[in-house]
Write a structure and sequence with these properties.
about 325 residues, mainly alpha
Length: about 325
């Protein structure tokens, strides 16, 4: 299996290299689109939250929250109260702040390994800035729709946490000692870590934007879109958004511009936001593996999150619109 994975990786890399050589305009256009997405949406909406989130961790806020929230979070999600900070930071700041927060807490000793890996399944989420501003206002022309999608996203995150518990019991967490923490030192460290995280995130976004551009230029994306539409009877615009969103959430969600705001299309948008895209998984995996954690639960959790988001959106659409 290891040899097969190696051959597949080499083959895909070779295809990408050939695409870059023979389609330079498409790759450059994809890079520009990715950079615009980073400068216009990702950095402004995520970087401040990443800094503040790291400050909270450095000052020991997760340990303080654990004291008050443990009775509830242990019963609901099978994790200590310290994970509450990661959950709310993820929902407030967006991808991949939840994964970053969990990894930081694990590195500090606030979370044990099994507990941290379970948290990764439902704490790495999209934030309100992207869902309300981009998906709601820019794509579907309605802040109300954005608020609806964000409410569904939160409900699906909590539901995923309940499903991932599966009767497991949480490990006891070691609380941080925060007596020697100071705001100036915490802020300095947090800015450096958040900057490093932004470079990583934007690097993945630009790469996957280039990949989508190459797939489009070579006709591969159009061919896959046609086959998917023929197989499931969906319109081409819908299928294209699904394929591009599976790879990169920003590109996929933005490509839904022009689709009618009905139950099926909003369910697709909810799925893409909950799943996060391969780009988000790569971003999170880089942080998770660097911290010594296994990303498998994160992948399972995002798949569950996407599916639950789509179902909740589809069946609750008529109640709100």
């Amino acid at each position: 299996m290891g040899k097969l994975s190696f051959i597949l990786a080499v083959f895909l890399s070779l295809c990408a290299f050939i695409g870059l050589v023979f389609c330079p305009a498409a790759s450059a256009g994809g890079a520009r689109a990715g950079l615009l997405l980073c400068s216009g949406i990702i950095i402004p909406s995520l970087f401040p939250f990443a800094v503040i989130g790291n400050v909270f961790v450095e000052l020991g806020l997760p340990s303080r929250l654990s004291k008050f929230c443990s009775p509830v979070t242990k019963r609901l999600f099978g994790v200590s109260g310290a994970g509450t900070a990661a959950l709310f930071l993820g929902l407030a700041g967006g991808y991949p702040l939840g994964a970053i927060s969990v990894s930081e807490m694990y590195a500090k000793g606030t979370l044990q390994k099994k507990e941290a890996e379970r948290l990764l399944g439902f704490c790495n989420n999209s934030g309100p800035a992207f869902i309300i501003s981009v998906a709601g206002s820019a794509v579907f022309g309605s802040i109300k729709i954005g608020l609806f999608l964000y409410a569904v996203h939160m409900l699906a995150a909590f539901s995923t946490g309940l499903l991932l518990k599966l009767g497991s019991t949480p490990e006891e967490s070691t609380a941080l000692t925060v007596a020697d923490a100071n705001i100036s030192g915490a802020f300095s460290v947090s800015v450096k870590r958040a900057t490093t995280a932004m470079v990583t995130v934007c690097g993945f976004v630009v790469f996957f934007s280039v990949l989508v551009g190459l797939l489009d230029a070579t006709g591969t994306l159009a061919s896959l879109t046609g086959r998917l539409s023929a197989l499931f009877g969906t319109e081409l615009h819908f299928s294209r958004s699904l394929l591009t969103g599976f790879l990169e959430i920003g590109t996929g969600t933005s490509s839904m511009l022009g689709l009618q705001a009905n139950a099926a299309n909003l369910a697709l948008c909810s799925f893409l936001i909950g799943w996060g895209g391969v780009s988000v998984h790569a971003q999170a995996s880089a942080v998770i593996r660097e911290g010594g954690l296994n990303p498998a639960t994160h992948t399972l959790g995002k798949l569950l999150h996407g599916g639950l988001s789509a179902l909740i959106t589809y069946f609750s659409y008529a109640l709100f619109f």
